[in-house]
Amino acid sequence: MNYKFQYGIVWENFGALLEGAWLTFQLGVLAFAGGLLIGLVGASIKSFAPQPFRFLVDSYVVFITNTPALIQIYFLYFGLPEIGIRWSSEACVLIGLILNAGAYLTLILRAGFLSVRRPELEAGITIGMSVLQQIRYIVVPHIAKSIYPAVANFFIVILVMGTSIGAVIGVDELTGTAINLSTINYRWLEYFSVIAVMYVVLTFVASIGLALFGRWAFRVKARIF
Amino acid sequence: MDRIIEQLPRFFTSGNMTLLLESAGLTLAMTLVGCLIGFFLAFVLVYLRQTPGLWALPLRLICISYVEVFRRIPFLVVIYLVLFFIQTISTDASLFTIAVIAICIYSIAYTADIIRGGLESVPHTQIEAAQTMNLSRLRTTVTIVLPQAWPVIVPPAIAFAVSFIKDTALVSQIGVFELTFRGKELNNQGYSGILVFGTIAMCYFLISFPLSMLGQYLEKRLATPRGERRARKIRRA
């Protein structure tokens, strides 16, 4: 192997990589937030709504979870302009990821909803809790405890696997920036090893933040490692 | 819309369909080979990770950090790293090999955790009993721990492999002729994007959905906890 690593050029462009990392983080958070909203609605429908709605949510979940996110984003980016819907590449990635995250989070949240047992709600009514109090003291702690680790893990998946798909259709997030920069001077190995480390650092920060938040808000012991 | 209807007969020709079938086969083969090799290597990794003793601490640290690091790097970045790293070593590696290696590296990191969970689910008294009988660590793992750990390992491992079929779509970026790449190619030939990517999505769905059903069936089948079954038998007698 006669390859000389030259990291100098990477440090010169480190600012651009940092900007890319910031966009990655933004995309990840927005996609996750949107997905959480869809997931809440979807899981509620799956749990409480009558049949036709449940079937709709089920088919949405099954279809999204069984097709690649990349194809969904290609569909939005290359397919939809034909019927007159033109979104920027950022918007396509974001919408694709939100749809994706929504389906997976529906499944996760639904499992959380199932973890609340009826006798506990009845016990809450017995000691005179209002509906809001029941939600605050019984429902939320239960759901949080059972699904917080899965949700936190999913955030990492979206942050890493999800947003990097954007690079394929030309979003300048971390991977996309690295591809752009390395096509200029062919320092692929250097750029990609550096962004790999950046991804690890980014997700570690996110993991630690989520674990602390979980401990503070729901007293859940989420694992970092 | 008219364009799609006009293209329909031209798109669904036997030529195009054989191309799609071929590339679907390639997608499946890639995932299968990569995940199988990854599965066995993950066993090795977990086995090394559980090496007891102080002298093996660096080894354990390496194994743990491998899993932690590769779970946190996007698959796309792994693909590019493997591609350009291998090209510095040899210039005649096929793209398929590179894709399989990338899939391997990635699936090791994910299956290692599944396997570790399975191995740790076996009660420790079993291992102690084996030690009392002076069985070596390898023999204990293979003949005593593994047979009991299978039902815990297999369903999530299959679920992982099935979900990974979808993630291999990213391999199209380096030019392996799998489903997604074919889709892009057909789209570039002028077929409507809605038609092409809709069809490709259906292809993935047809591959992934039955397999995930199979995975769920296996999970139900294998998940009956053994202890419970035994306890029931005893009570009946």
Structural notes for this entry:
The complex is a heterodimer of chains A (225) and B (237). In chain A, 79% of the residues lie in helices and 0% in strands. Chain A has helices at 8-12, 14-48, 51-65, 69-79, 89-114, 118-126, 131-164, 174-185, 188-218. The model of chain A has no long low-confidence stretch (mean pLDDT 87). Chain B is mainly alpha-helical. Helix content of chain B is 81%, strand content 0%. Chain B is built from ten helices and no strands. Chain B has helices spanning 2-11, 14-49, 57-70, 75-89, 95-120, 124-132, 137-167, 179-188, 193-223, 226-236. The interface between A and B is large, with 42 and 44 residues.
| Mean of residue pLDDT values of chain B | 86
Shape of chain A: flat
Give the biggest sheet of chain A.
none
Structural class of chain B: mainly alpha
Q: What is the average per-residue confidence, as pLDDT of chain A, rounded to a whole number?
A: 87
What structural class do the secondary elements of chain A suggest? Answer: mainly alpha
Oligomer: heterodimer
User: How many H/I helical runs of chain B?
Assistant: 10
N- and C-termini, Cα separation of chain B: 70 Å
Cα radius of gyration of chain B in angstroms:
22 Å
Q: What order do the SSEs of chain A take from the amino end to the carboxyl end, as H and E?
A: HHHHHHHHH
Segments of chain A where pLDDT lies below 50 for 5+ residues?
A: none
Strand portion of chain B, in percent? under 5%
Which features does this protein show?
heterodimer, A: 225 residues, B: mainly alpha, 81% helix
Characterize this entry briefly:
The complex is a heterodimer of chains A (225) and B (237). Chain A is mostly helical. Chain A is built from 9 helices and no strands.
